[in-house]
């Protein structure tokens, strides 16, 4: 039933998929949410949306994933989609150097439009095409270390590391959120005051109630 | 002096022979790394980027149809035609050039012309679809133009018009969608409008919708908005019962619909 209203989760985290056109964002999404892959899939216009609920550190987490169009023209439009996002997967294609060179521009895009505390993972996709590789894994590693991002190479086609990439990002977000919630509780109890005025930046999800950072 | 000219001529011949340009012949504007608008090199690099993008998108135009995709020479020649049209359009319209999604608008036009039962007509499918593509986009190209995004004629303006139309005919639905469940029309209708509904239905249904879209005396823009509005009204019960997630999923994956009925409902929104 498509119109069932479900609240069966502890946290709702919004994740955006960004990166140049043709790097495989939509296939990473369909691999993760439906375990599907299409060698030739339609180009994404505007934004596409999917969800998947999974268990992380004993909590039920609903990942709400927004897949965006890669072409420059769509960036101004898609910047609205960054609002409320707590995680981002920044994807490049290991067989196309240009898509790796553009990662810097995408980071700037995030800095301009997303929350400063957004958890970013860089992904080198199409690792099954190793014979066509033009970006060495070490380059990705070095760049991500320099920028303080987590990093993985994935293959949406062979279902390698896609699950792990999402798990890593979601778990990192969850840790930040629980730490903040814990700190908030502690300061509340030591000050003998209520939690009023405590800001949780990364996600607006409180610990003990059903939380969400968008709606529903 | 005569020997001087002869010498420089023979030098030129030498340069031509090994493909090198004389250093003094390269003006500042023609420097390979120049970012100037008139630089031939810069234009060359920009166009090769556009051509790569067109190539990538043409290959993923209706990947489920043999007409457009696959290894047959028929599909290959059709892809070449789509590419030619899009490249020429990009060259002639420097302000917009190629925007992802134009391939989806061109595809139905080319398909119809190429399948003309009369070979004499079918052979001119590329030229005919180019003409019609230019005509069709003359009414819609502002939606593709980033500079006009926030102007009344750009995509945001068109999306507001849709909102107003829904509000006029079904205020409860518009309020529930946009206020209660916070589903911004941009999240689903951006694609409906920029692609003229080509990604929402199967190909035969799209052609059916386009027959109305292109023949309505009110013009394609008004008709398109009415059809979009009717699409919302047809699933209003589910939308009114839904939350953000289920509503957005429903509208991004619009269910198979009786197209004649949809067009009937749209036509009543006059």
From TrEMBL, chain A:
Its domain of life reads Eukaryota
Q: Which keywords belong to this entry?
A: GTP-binding, Lipoprotein, Membrane, Nucleotide-binding, Prenylation
Q: What GO molecular functions are on record for this protein?
A: GTP binding; GTPase activity
Q: Where in the cell is it found?
A: Endomembrane system
Per UniProt, what is the membrane topology?
A: Lipid-anchor
**Matching InterPro entries:** Rab_GTPases_membrane_traffic, Small_GTP-bd, Small_GTPase
The entry's cellular-component GO terms read: endomembrane system
Q: GTP-binding: present as a keyword of the record?
A: yes
**Homology family:** Belongs to the small GTPase superfamily. Rab family.
Protein name, UniProt field: Ras-related protein Rab11C
UniProtKB/TrEMBL annotation, chain B:
SMART domains found in the cross-reference section: TBC
Top-level taxon of the source organism: Eukaryota
Q: Where is the composition biased (Basic and acidic residues)?
A: 8-25
Q: Which PANTHER family match?
A: TBC1 DOMAIN FAMILY MEMBER 13, TBC1 DOMAIN FAMILY MEMBER GTPASE-ACTIVATING PROTEIN
Q: Which residues form the Rab-GAP TBC domain?
A: 31-217
- For this entry, list what GO says about its biological process: intracellular protein transport
Per its record, how is this protein called by name? Answer: Rab-GAP TBC domain-containing protein
- Region annotation (Disordered) maps to 1-25
- Extract the GO molecular function terms from the UniProt entry: GTPase activator activity
């Amino acid at each position: 039933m498509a119109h069932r209203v479900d609240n069966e989760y502890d946290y709702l985290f919004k994740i955006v998929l960004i990166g140049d056109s043709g790097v495989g964002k939509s296939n990473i999404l369909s691999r993760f949410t439906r375990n599907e892959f299409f060698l030739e899939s339609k180009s994404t216009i505007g934004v596409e949306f999917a969800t998947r609920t999974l268990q992380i550190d004993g909590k039920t987490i609903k990942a709400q994933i927004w897949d965006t169009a890669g072409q420059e023209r769509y960036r101004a439009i898609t910047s609205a989609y960054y609002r409320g996002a707590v995680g981002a997967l920044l994807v490049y294609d290991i067989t196309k150097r240009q898509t790796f060179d553009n990662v810097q521009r995408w980071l700037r895009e995030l800095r301009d439009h997303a929350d400063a505390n957004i958890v970013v993972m860089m992904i080198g996709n199409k690792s099954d095409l190793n014979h066509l590789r033009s970006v060495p894994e070490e380059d990705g590693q070095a760049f991500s270390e320099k920028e303080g991002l987590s990093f993985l190479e994935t293959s949406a086609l062979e279902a390698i590391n896609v699950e792990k990439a999402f798990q890593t990002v979601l778990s990192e977000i969850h840790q930040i959120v629980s730490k903040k919630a814990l700190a908030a509780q502690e300061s509340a109890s030591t000050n003998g005051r209520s939690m009023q005025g405590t800001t949780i930046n990364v996600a607006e999800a409180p610990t003990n109630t059903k939380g969400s950072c968008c709606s529903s | 002096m005569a020997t001087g000219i002869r010498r420089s001529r023979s030098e030129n011949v030498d340069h031509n022979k090994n493909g090198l340009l004389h250093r003094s012949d390269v003006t500042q504007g023609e420097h390979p790394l120049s970012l100037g608008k008139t630089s031939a090199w810069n234009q060359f690099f920009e166009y090769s980027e556009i051509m790569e993008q067109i190539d990538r998108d043409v290959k993923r135009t209706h990947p489920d149809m043999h007409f457009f995709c696959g290894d047959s020479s028929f599909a290959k020649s059709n892809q070449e035609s789509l590419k030619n049209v899009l490249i020429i359009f990009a060259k002639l319209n420097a302000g917009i050039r190629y925007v992802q999604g134009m391939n989806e608008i061109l595809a139905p036009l080319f398909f119809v012309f190429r399948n003309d039962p009369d070979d004499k007509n079918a052979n001119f499918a590329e030229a005919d679809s180019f003409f019609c593509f230019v005509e069709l986009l003359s009414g819609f190209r502002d939606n593709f133009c980033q500079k006009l995004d926030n102007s009344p004629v750009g995509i945001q303006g068109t999306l507001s018009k849709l909102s107003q139309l829904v509000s006029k005919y079904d205020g409860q639905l518009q309020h529930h969608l946009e206020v209660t469940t916070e589903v911004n029309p941009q999240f689903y209708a951006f694609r409906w409008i920029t692609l003229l509904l080509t990604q929402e239905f199967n190909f035969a249904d799209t052609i059916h919708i386009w027959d109305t879209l292109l023949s309505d005396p009110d013009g394609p823009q008004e008709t398109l908005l009415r059809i979009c509005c009717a699409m919302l009204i047809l699933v209003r019960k589910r939308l009114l019962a839904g939350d953000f997630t289920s509503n957005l999923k429903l509208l991004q994956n619009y269910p198979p619909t009786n197209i004649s009925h949809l067009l009937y409902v749209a036509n009543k929104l006059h």
